[in-house]
Amino acid sequence: MNVYEAIASYKPYNIQEEKDQKTILGFLDKYDDAFERSNELAHMTASAWVVNKDRTKVLMAYHRIYDSWSWLGGHCDGDKDCLNVAIREVREESGLENVRALSEDIFSLEVLSVDSHIRKGNYVPTHLHLNVTYLLEADENETLRVKEDENSGVAWFEMDEAVSKSTEKWFRDNIYSKLNSKLRNDYENN
Fold this sequence. Notes:
Elements (H helix, E strand, L loop, with lengths): L2 H7 L5 H16 L11 E10 L5 E7 L4 E3 L1 E4 L6 H13 L4 E3 L6 E7 L2 E3 L2 E3 L2 E12 L12 E8 H7 L3 H20 L2
Parallel strand pairs: 1-9
Antiparallel strand pairs: 1-4, 2-3, 2-10, 5-9, 6-9, 7-8
Helix pairs in contact: 4-5
């Protein structure tokens, strides 16, 4: 199943995901370059909610641009395999090698606004990230490594502490809390 089909068949968890699903599909229908950063209006990204084997901790990185602890992920940059992008980004941003998907299914969908900023000396205008999130698992005892150009720290936090570590209110209240809720519903009840 390609990513468009996966997004179209995804069952939204709440009204935010329902509306964001429609936005993402509409954008993919309209723009051939939706997977490229060169589309300065919006482009596809993939993120990961990385948990330990016991599902009690979440991996976060201290993101330089956002000046906050946040999930890991990044731009698709032409790769239409969003799960592959999420795994690649976790490896690059954390130094972890042993990362696996708990499911190939999408875990969450988000349309996220990104304020203008300077990246590697270049101005990046305000735009949207059309984001697909996957639930990944990694070994919390594996050595972590900072990716100097993107983050200044990588650490495991208890689930609720991971949410509270973020200084981005929207992410705390509407994204990270949602991901923890879904994780608890999906894995504590099975």
